[in-house]
Write a structure and sequence with these properties.
Number of domains: 3
Oligomer: single chain
Structural class: alpha+beta
Number of strands: 25
Radius of gyration: 25 Å
Distance between the termini: 67 Å
Shape: elongated
CATH architecture of the largest domain: Roll
Strand content: 35-45%
Length: 367
């Protein structure tokens, strides 16, 4: 195997796949990246057995077909250290890989390509296309609500639900829920749900940019695959039943508050300084056209902040984890936030005032 390639042409795909490669591996080959030269293309593959990324680059110089695995971190560090305009010559010499660039020369150890695991593909049951910018927005607006290491393993990921012409993302950690819809080009009226693990969601988000390119997604019984430009992303799915999120959406809330999103965010941030560091509880006192935010902590310190809002219902007192409210306000788009409440024991429904494509539910706290 041999190839010559511009440094920048190698660096970008290498950076894309090396994010998946774990630092501490049970199998030595998982610290490596698989290099395959075939028919004028270089394919680089990284995996941690849960997520797999394949990035491709066209070769214009000399090349010889072949495949081998090399240490991902070392190869990336070498590429970063070379001058931006450098050309790199790579050649497999027995069990060693040599890199030459200008007056620099490096020799790396290798492991055979046949030791490198590939994710079982399974049958692709369902394919659809979505705008790359829309998918990135969908993930950005919901991923903060995923659980981190919950024993309910099916919460440590994100639900993707495909229906006719629409992709819906839902995430919840049991205390709050985030849901967002986007248009997608789907065929048929089938409804399909899959749970993508947390790491898979994060790696997919890392690949996406704000351009208008199209992402093709294939859902299988045990994997999700996405093609973004020259990169193919594959992730295993979580085998479990996601909660019936529609039952969690509060219905019948009669107290509707409209507030300036940025002013509300700043007001909550100020009060949060003196909230209990462990429980982060704050109290909302609602009266016509006024929202009073109160916080206190075990040191007997108190904060109080008044905010003018649009509200003409009955007075209400309710407690929340302030961080959950701030997380939602951080991803809303419009200048005005809409908050719908029922009573002091009911969850809050938060959304943009003008756009109902994303919805957030936050459970109340007893203070």
């Amino acid at each position: 195997m041999k190839l010559s390639i511009a440094r920048d042409q190698l660096l970008k795909p290498l950076q894309q796949v090396s994010g998946v490669v774990e630092k501490r591996q049970t199998l030595p080959v998982l610290a490596n990246v698989l290099m395959v030269v075939d028919a004028g293309k270089l394919a680089l593959t990284g995996t941690d057995l849960e997520v797999e990324l394949i990035a491709r680059a066209d070769l214009s110089g000399e090349f010889g077909d072949g495949e081998i695995t090399v240490p991902a971190r070392k190869l990336l560090d070498i590429c970063k250290a070379l001058p931006a305009s450098a050309d790199i010559e790579i050649k497999l010499d027995g069990q060693k890989l040599t890199l030459k660039s200008g007056k620099s020369r490096f020799t790396l150890t290798t492991l055979p390509a046949n030791e490198f695991p590939n994710l079982e593909e399974g049958v692709g049951a369902f394919s659809f296309s979505i705008n790359q910018k829309e998918l990135k927005k969908l993930i950005d607006k919901t991923s903060f609500a995923m659980a981190q290491q919950d024993v309910r393993y099916y919460l440590n990921g994100m639900l993707f639900e495909v229906t006719s012409g629409q992709l819906r993302a839902v995430a919840t950690d049991g205390h709050r829920l985030a849901m967002c819809d986007a248009n997608a080009e789907t065929s048929g009226d089938d409804r399909m749900q899959v749970i993508v693990p947390r790491k898979g969601v994060q790696e997919l988000a890392r690949l996406l940019t704000d351009d208008e390119g199209v992402v093709t997604i294939t859902l299988g019984t045990n994997h999700i695959r996405a093609k973004v430009g020259n990169v193919t992303f594959t992730s295993k799915l979580i085998d479990g039943k996601f909660p019936d999120y529609e039952r969690v959406l509060p219905k019948g809330g009669d107290k509707i508050i409209l507030a300036n999103r940025e002013e509300l965010r700043q007001s909550l941030s100020r009060a949060a300084i003196l909230s209990n560091e462990k429980f982060r509880g704050i109290r909302l006192l609602l009266t016509p056209d006024l929202l009073r935010i109160q916080a206190n902590n075990p040191d007997q310190e108190e904060a109080e902040d008044d905010l003018t809002v649009e509200y003409n219902g009955n007075s209400l007192e309710i407690g929340f984890n302030v961080q959950y409210l701030l997380d939602v306000l951080g991803v809303l788009d419009t200048a005005t936030a809409k908050l719908t409440l029922g009573d002091s024991n009911s969850s809050a429904l938060m959304q943009d005032a003008e756009n109902g494509r994303s919805v957030y539910v936050v459970m109340p706290m007893r203070l």
